[in-house]
């Protein structure tokens, strides 16, 4: 079947076991299994449930029979998959890898492709929509304290119609997500700010928004974003591995409306986050000087950042750039240096804030500066491969 870029489908797996185990019809899992079986890729990078629902484990799968273990969505995953891909899998330079990616995974991978840290020819991006992820420990606390449920009893959590719903064997309990977030619970702060919910920067974008009618809850909405995506989808359809239907027009509209609503909410969050600063680097450093003074220079943010890639980091105390005697710079300058490196590329993935022992809102600070760069240069990180970074000369 000839599939074209921008085409949209409802789809579900023909494999009953995968369909059952998949989040919404098991299409991602079916595609991944087929890519491995046909040798189109050497491995897939996906996310498996570890100890429990609150434990998202990135996993490299090479045996097609193991792919089913990665079916399902884990919303408490704070990880960004660009890091294992660039750091531990040598930027896909030796292996062809298909990655299941949230929009921020895809954005960061695209930035690293531009920086030559990931081989874009060897990577297939199978995108999943994302309304946001939640921090595991805080979420378990919230389930105990606010929902008055045992986190172990929760079978599934999802955001639907403005509520964060916890499902147990006894039924569902939903609380308005904006009420939770006003009290510092719910989605991670960077996810609340995120302005890409449908990963049209991946090869395919799959999600449940817009699936209505008899297939609601049993199928996934698939949007074809690139020629590579069209080829992948065409093959699994031809092989009879997935069943597709034309989406219901009203469903297409609903998907668009939900997405627009979520983006509007993100914009409000950004306005709140960026209030009180022009976004200029020195102004931002000044606004957050008290927070930044708590920095203990543990290098946690640098280590966690998927886009921080210099092999010889000038922030090392032994580096020649710093004060004689091996002193690392005072907090604002430590961060100023990172900002200069990251200002154009930061994808607001939030990994830095997750790890900071001093609870400095690092991601918010970076995102404020990055937003200013967007305004000045019109460059939005992670959306495509063919636009050069504003601060680097890159041979495209
Ligand atoms: P499956 O066949 O079940 O495959 C799911 C794939 O996602 C697997 O490869 C799995 O490894 C991977 N995965 C699981 N957790 C993660 C994670 N944390 N990070 C990266 N990959 C992961 N759709 C919407 O329409 N609206 C939403 O708001 C929305 N939010 C989501 C939030 C998250 C964190 C995730 C992971 C998905 C979300 N989705 C959302 C997508 C939706 O849940 C399904 O993934 C999609 O419909 C595909 O269904 P499937 O049955 O084909 O997937
Ligand atoms: Fe400083 Fe926090 Fe980064 Fe550690 S993680 S270096 S304390 S900002």
Describe this structure in words.
There is one protein chain. The chain is an alpha/beta fold and 396 residues long. The chain is 36% helix and 15% strand. It contains 15 helices and 11 strands. The chain has helices spanning 16-21, 27-37, 82-88, 103-114, 136-145, 177-182, 189-193, 227-238, 249-274, 281-287, 289-292, 300-304, 331-342, 351-355, 362-377, and strands at residues 8-13, 43-49, 56-61, 97-101, 123-128, 156-160, 163-168, 171-176, 204-207, 220-224, 242-245. The strands form 2 sheets. The chain has an 8-stranded mixed sheet with strand order 3-2-4-5-9-10-1-11. It has a 3-stranded antiparallel sheet with strand order 6-7-8. The relative contact order is 0.14. The mean pLDDT is 92. The chain binds flavin-adenine dinucleotide (FAD) and iron/sulfur cluster. Iron/sulfur cluster is lined by residues 295-301, 355-358, 360, 362.
Please give the share of residues in helix: 25-40%
SSE topology string: EHHEEHEHEHEEEHHEEHEHHHHHHH
**Strand order within the widest sheet?**
3-2-4-5-9-10-1-11
Q: How many individual β-strands?
A: 11
Which ions and ligands are bound to the chains? flavin-adenine dinucleotide, iron/sulfur cluster
- What's the pLDDT, averaged over the residues? 92
Structural class: alpha/beta
Shape: globular
* Rg: 21 Å
- Counted by DSSP, the helix tally is 15
Taking pLDDT < 50 over at least 5 consecutive residues as the criterion, the unreliable ranges are none
Summarize this structure briefly.
With 396 residues, the chain is an alpha/beta fold. It folds into 2 domains: 8-133 and 187-268, no CATH class; 278-377. Helices cover 36% and strands 15% of the residues.
């Amino acid at each position: 079947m000839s599939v074209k870029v921008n085409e949209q489908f409802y789809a579900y797996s023909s494999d009953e076991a995968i369909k059952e185990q998949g989040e919404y019809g098991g299409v991602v899992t079916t595609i991944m299994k087929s890519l491995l079986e046909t040798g189109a890729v050497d491995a897939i990078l996906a996310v498996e449930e570890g100890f429990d629902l609150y434990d998202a484990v990135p996993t490299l799968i090479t045996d097609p029979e193991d792919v089913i273990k990665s079916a399902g969505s884990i919303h408490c995953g704070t990880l960004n998959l660009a890091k294992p891909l660039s750091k531990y899998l040598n930027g896909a330079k030796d292996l062809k890898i298909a990655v299941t990616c949230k929009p921020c995974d895809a954005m960061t991978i695209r930035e690293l492709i531009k920086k030559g840290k990931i081989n874009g020819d060897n990577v297939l991006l199978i995108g999943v929509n994302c309304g946001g992820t939640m921090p595991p420990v805080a979420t378990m606390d919230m389930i105990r304290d606010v929902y008055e449920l045992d986190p172990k009893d929760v079978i599934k959590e999802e955001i639907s119609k403005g509520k964060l719903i916890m499902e147990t064997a006894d039924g569902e309990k939903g609380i308005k997500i904006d009420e939770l977030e006003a009290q510092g619970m719910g989605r991670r702060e960077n996810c609340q700010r995120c302005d890409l919910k449908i990963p049209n920067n991946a090869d395919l974008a799959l999600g449940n928004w817009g699936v209505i009618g008899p297939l609601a809850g049993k199928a996934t909405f698939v949007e074809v974003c690139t020629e590579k995506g069209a080829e992948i989808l065409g093959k699994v359809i031809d092989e009879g591995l997935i069943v597709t239907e034309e989406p219901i027009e009203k469903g297409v509209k609903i998907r668009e409306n939900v997405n627009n609503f979520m983006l509007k909410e993100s914009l409000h969050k950004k306005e709140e986050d960026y209030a009180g600063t022009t976004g200029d680097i020195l102004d931002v450093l000044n606004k957050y000087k008290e927070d930044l003074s708590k920095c203990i220079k543990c290098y946690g943010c640098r280590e966690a950042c998927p886009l921080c890639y210099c092999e010889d980091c000038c922030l090392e105390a032994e580096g020649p750039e710093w004060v004689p005697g091996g002193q690392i710079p005072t907090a604002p300058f430590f961060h100023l240096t990172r900002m200069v490196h990251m200002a154009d590329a930061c994808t607001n993935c939030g990994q830095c804030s997750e790890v900071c022992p001093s609870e400095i809102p690092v991601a918010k600070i970076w995102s404020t500066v990055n937003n200013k760069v967007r305004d000045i240069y019109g460059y939005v990180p992670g959306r495509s491969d063919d636009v050069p970074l504003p601060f680097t000369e890159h041979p495209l």
